[in-house]
Write a structure and sequence with these properties.
This protein is an all-beta fold. Helix content is 0%, strand content 35%. The strands form 5 sheets. Strands 1-4-7-10-13-16-19-21-22 form a 9-stranded mixed β-sheet, with no helix packed on it. It has a 6-stranded parallel β-sheet with strand order 3-6-9-12-15-18, with no helix packed on it. Strands 2-5-8-11 form a 4-stranded parallel β-sheet, with no helix packed on it.
């Protein structure tokens, strides 16, 4: 018995593993060997290729392709028409399928609409990639990046609001009140005890 839902126009290949209460929209193709967690929302015209791993509670908006060697952890948001690449130097006449570079999207990350993620990078936990950004290198946990190429422009709370600097290396969220500390260029979430 199938424990997920999908539109009749979508293809779910035998051997694909899909978790409970996941919803799959129109014209999707979920290929054999891919693994999708529970409570995911997959929009229209999404392709998930073999050997992809997608966590729980992931939202994938319309027209996104998840290539082989891409891993997406829990709670990630992929905006509409964002793009992953899988080879650094593709050529039509050269088969480089053995050269796929792994890309890791850590827990809670958000990738905005039409952003491009160059293969081989790690997007840190709860980072926020602005719409249209071109990401060519790793993004730190809680990092807010945008532009082409994407650059670090600040820090973002787990709730999705840009952090404000309190003093020196201490930051807070003006919306939810969460507090953070920046240690050696790494943002660390903490409670009120860090201040």
């Amino acid at each position: 018995m199938v424990s997920y839902t999908f539109h009749d126009s979508s293809y779910i290949d035998p051997g694909a593993v899909i978790g409970e209460n996941t919803q799959i929209g129109y014209f999707c193709h979920i290929m054999s060997g891919s693994k999708i967690g529970s409570k995911c929302t997959i929009g229209d015209s999404v392709t998930v290729m073999p050997d992809c791993v997608i966590g729980n509670n992931v939202t994938i908006q319309n027209q996104v392709t998840i290539y082989s060697a891409i891993s997406i952890e829990d709670g990630v948001f992929l905006g509409p028409s964002m793009v992953f690449t899988n080879i650094l130097s593709p050529r039509s006449q050269t088969n480089r399928k053995n050269g796929y570079l792994p890309t890791l999207v850590r827990k809670g990350a958000t990738i905005g609409a039409n952003a491009t993620i160059i293969c081989g990078v790690t997007l840190g936990s709860y980072c926020f990639i602005g719409a249209g950004a071109v990401v060519t290198r790793d993004v730190p946990d809680y990092g807010l990046v945008y532009g082409n190429p994407a650059r670090l422009h600040g820090w973002i709370c787990e709730c999705g609001v840009q952090l404000k600097r309190l003093k020196e290396n201490r930051y807070f969220c003006p919306t939810c009140g969460s507090q953070y500390i920046l240690i050696e260029d790494k943002m660390i979430a903490g409670g009120k005890e860090i201040l």
